[in-house]
Amino acid sequence: MLKVLFLLLMAGGLPVAIAMAGSSLLYILYSGNLPPFVVIHRMVSGIDSFPLLAVPFFILAGNLMNNAGITNRIYNYALALVGWLKGGLGHVNVVGSVVFAGMSGTAIADAAGLGTIEIKAMKDHGYETEFAVGVTAASATLGPIIPPSLPFVIYGMMANVSVGALFLAGILPGAIMAVAMMLTVAYFAHKNGWGGDVKFEWHRVSKAIIETAVVIGWPAAVWLLVVKAGMPAQLTVLVCGIALFAADRMFRFQAVLPIMTPVLLIGGMTTGVFTPTEGAIAACIWAMVLGFAWYRTLAWKAFVKVCLDTVETTSTVLFIVAAASIFGWMLTATGVTAAISSWVLGFTREPWVFLLLANVLMLFVGCFLEPTAAITILVPILVPICQQLGIDLVHFGLVMVLNLMIGLLHPPMGMVLFVLARVAKLSVERTTVAILPWLVPLLASLVFITYVPKAVLWLPKLFY
Q1: Which candidate in 133, 326, 366, 445 could, as Cys together with 434 as Cys, close a disulfide (CB 3.0–4.6 Å)?
Q2: What is the separation of C-alpha 58 from the centre of its chain, rounded to a whole number of angstroms?
Q3: Considering the domain boundaries, does residue 264 fall inside one?
Q4: DSSP codes joined into one string, 145-213
Q5: Which part of the chain is the TRAP C4-dicarboxylate transport system permease DctM subunit domain (predicted)?
C-alpha cells in the first residue's frame, strides 16, 4: 500500500520529497494505527543530527570557492599541467574536476561552476560541443567521490559509518576514475588526430609540477616533523602554513592554496583535530580567508548572495532527508525492508551476486531520484543485507554513491544532464547521446570498485 501510494504521487508529478512524506501521511491516515503527528515528529528527528550540520557548511564552502574566482585559477593550473597533451582541453577538464572536487563535494556544482568555463574554452578551440559536454559530464561525477562529499555525509549518517573513513575511501577510486577518463580523452585525440591546445613551455609545466609537489609535500613535511622529529604539532602546522603562504606569494602559484582544502579536511579528521562537521566549518573559514583576504576577489555583496543560495540549497537537501526519514521508517515499520531482505537472501547468499543486483537497482533508481533521496531510501533496505553477507559498509557506500552519480547523467531526472544541456545550449536528446561514450570508463570504474574492495579500503584501514 505504502509503495503504491508513493508511486502514484510520483507519477502525478509531485516532487520526490512531497511524494515520500505525503504517501507516509496517507498510509497512516488509512491504517489508523498511529496519530498523524508522527509524520512531523519523525521528519524533525530525521534531521536532528550533528553530522548533518556538515551539509550547509560544505555547500557554503563550495559556493564560496565558486564565487571567489577560484575556478579560473584551477582551470589555469590544469591548463599549464596537461594542456599541451594531445586532446589538451579534454585532459584539462578532467584534472580541473579532480581539483574542484576537493572543494565542492557535489557533481552539480562541478558541472555548473567549472563546467561553464571548460565547455566555452573547448568550443572556442574547435572541439565539438558534444565531446565537450560528454567529458564535462563524466568528470563531474568525481565531485562526490573525491572528498569532501555531501552524499558521503548523508550515507555515513544513515548507515552509522565513519564519514572520515568514507572520505579516505574515495581518494584512490577517484584517481582511478580520473585516469580512466584521461585514457578515454587520449583515445578520442588519437582517433581524431587532435594535438595540444597550448604550446609546451617548460617553465609553465615545471611551475605546475612544483605546485603539485608542494600540495603533496606540505602534509608529508608536517608528518615528518611531528612524528619523526617530535616537534609540537600546532607549532609545526603554523610554521609550515606561514611558509606555504610565503611560497604562494613569492612564486605566484595558481591553485596551491585552493587545492589545500581537501588536505586540510582529511588531515584534520584523520589526526582527530576536528570532526567532519567541524572540518566543514574549517573549509568555509579557509574559503573566506582566500576570497576576502588573500586573493581579494570576493565582495560582501557577493558573499550575501552566496549565503542566500546556500540557505536555499540546504533547505532543499534537508527537506528531502526529513521526508525520506519518515518514508524509510514506514518501510521498516510495515515490514517492507524485512521482506526485501528475506527475498534477496533467499535468492542468493553470494556477495558478488548481491553486489551485481544492487548495482543494477541503484543505477535504475539513480535515473529517477535525486542522490540524497535515493540514499535515504536505499540505505535502510540494502545495508542490513550487506551486514548479513559481510560486505564492508564503507566499501558499499562508495559503490552506492558512484552508482547514483552515474544516474545523474541520464534522463528523466539526471540533474547534471539538464545543467549541461542548458550551459552548452544543446537539446536534452543531443546531450544524452554525447554522454553515452563516457559511460564506458564510468561503468568500467564501477565494476573495478565493486569487485576490488581492497582499492577502496586500503586508505581507511591505514588510518582507522
Answers
A1: 133
A2: 11
A3: no
A4: TSSS-HHHHHHHHHHT--HHHHHHHTHHHHHHHHHHHHHHHHHHHHHHT---SS---HHHHHHHHHHHH
A5: 4-454
Q: How far is CA 172 from CA 144, 345, 456, in A?
A: 13, 31, 7
pLDDT tens digit sequence for 11-33: 777 777 788 888 888 878 877 77
pLDDT reported for residue 146: 86
Query: What does the DSSP 8-state code read for residue 410?
Result: S
| 42: in domain | yes
Unique residue bearing C-alpha cell 588526430: 193
Q: With the CA atoms of 350, 353, 354 and 359 taken in that order, what torsion angle do they form, in degrees rounded to the nearest 10?
A: 160
- Please answer whether residues 196 and 89 qualify as being in contact, where contact means their C-beta atoms are separated by less than 8 angstroms: no
Judge whether 246 lies within some domain.
no
Tally of structural domains, the chain: 1
**Distance between CA atoms of residues 424 and 418, nearest Å:** 10
Identity at 287, one-letter amino acid code: A
Percent of residues, the chain, with pLDDT higher than 70: 95
What tens digit of pLDDT does each residue of 174-232 get? 999 999 999 999 999 998 888 888 888 888 888 888 888 888 888 888 878 877 777 87
Helix, strand, coil percent content, the chain, rounded in steps of 5: 80, 0, 20
Query: What's the domain range around 336?
Result: 24-53+70-76+83-200+299-463
Q: What is the spatial distance between Cα 377 and Cα 369, in angstroms, rounded to a whole number? A: 10
> By mean pLDDT, which of 110-119, 214-223, 359-368, 427-436 is the weakest?
110-119
Q: To 10 degrees, what angle do helices 16-31 and 300-333 make?
A: 30
Q: Measure the CA–CA gap between 135 and 130, rounded to whole angstroms.
A: 9
Asked if residue 456 is part of any domain, the answer here is: yes
Q: In this model, does residue 173 exceed pLDDT 90? A: yes
